[in-house]
């Protein structure tokens, strides 16, 4: 049986709360998983693990955009709160089996770099959200 591969250009959709920041993002990385809890007991011949709490990290690089309604303001308002909601999908906002949407709730933005630039280059800044819980949705 032949296998099928689908390849497409990434054009992620990224919302922080209700604000669409997709057009200002240069790159995004979402890492989801679970903590590994060791459950090895006497007599086991190797380490055994069980699933623990969810683990979430979202790294986003933004182009420098400042002002009242900007990504810098959006990130500054989220800074230090553990209640931020992010919605991320790889290719637009219509979720499907080939475009899963991840909703992360109660994420924490502990810090970000609002000024990061070099002479003659586009300014960028990096934000890393950690924690919270994730849900994957593929229903249209």
CATH topology name: Elongation Factor Tu (Ef-tu), domain 3
Whole-Å distance between the termini?
29 Å
Order of helices and strands: EEEEHEEEE
Content-based structural category: mainly beta
**Largest sheet: number of strands, sense, barrel closure:** 8 strands, antiparallel
- Mass-distribution shape: globular
Count up the domains. 1
Supply the CATH architecture: Beta Barrel
Q: What level of helicity do the residues show?
A: under 10%
Radius of gyration: 18 Å
Number of helices: 1
Q: Which percent range describes the beta-strand content? A: over 45%
What's the total number of strands? 8
List keywords for this structure.
mainly beta; Elongation Factor Tu (Ef-tu), domain 3; globular; 8-stranded antiparallel β-sheet; 140 residues
Characterise this structure:
With 140 residues, the protein is mostly beta strands. The chain contains one helix and eight strands, in the order E-E-E-E-H-E-E-E-E. The mean pLDDT is 89. It has one helix at 71-78; strands at residues 13-16, 19-20, 25-38, 49-63, 84-89, 101-112, 124-130, 133-137. 6% of the residues lie in helices and 46% in strands. The chain is globular. Strands 1, 2, 3, 4, 5, 6, 7 and 8 form an eight-stranded antiparallel beta sheet that branches. The protein has a single domain, classed as Elongation Factor Tu (Ef-tu), domain 3.
